[in-house]
Amino acid sequence: MAITIHHTVGASNANSYLSLTDAQDLIDGLVEDDDVTAWASATTDQKNRALYTAAVRIDRERFLGARATDTQGMQWPREGVLKPDTYNRSISGFPYTLTADYFTTTEIPEQIKEAQIILAVYLNNNKAGLGLSGLEDYKRVGVGGIAVEPMTTGAVGADRVPPMYERMLTGLRISGPGNVSIKRS
Fold it and tell me: Does residue 144 lie in a domain region?
């Protein structure tokens, strides 16, 4: 059965942050690596499934702020999230003050849309990308003496995703690959 993409911002039945047409506009500008080449030969249903799966994976992230409504189907739009690397400068006497620029409750950040596209293209060509247990990439994992030995360099562990995907979510989420908690026992 074919999947239908619903991308209305804030809708209770939304299952994607953008349409396949909007996604294709960005994909057409990407370098033609193996993933982009595989995307070009995929069916519309395969592309929609990849977009849907990428949206589901994005919504597993822990984002800053709060969902805009209790009835929306996706994690975005959100309120109380500062736009990364942007400020509106407003003069209020001396010295000057900076007023933060926040995402609106009807806005999906471009970073979220782009992350969904990058992940969808990757998943279309790497079907097992989200089915990893997290231990496939390690020769040895230890506890006493803390010994972790990866088999390769680069992305390792469960939910191996493209590095560009990770970078696009910087500044929007609470968790991420750089957030590691070490506690002394």
Answer: no
Total count of domains within the chain = 1
43 within a domain of the structure (yes/no): yes
Phi, psi of 78 (to 5 degrees): -135, 160
Contact assessment for residue 53 and residue 47, using Cβ atoms and an 8 Å cutoff:
no
From the list 76, 11, 4, 109, the residue with the least C-alpha distance to 47 is 4
Token pair 């030995």 is found at 149
Residue 17 pLDDT class (50, 70, 90 cuts): very high
Contact of 103 with 81, CB cutoff 8 Å: yes
Which range marks the domain in which residue 127 is found? 20-132+163-168
| Dihedral angle computed from the Cα positions of residues 18, 19, 25 and 26, in that order, rounded to the nearest 10 degrees | 30
pLDDT in tens, 82-131: 888 765 555 555 555 555 688 999 999 999 999 999 999 999 998 877 66
Exposed / middle / buried, residue 124 (Cβ in 10 Å: 0-12, 13-18, 19+): buried
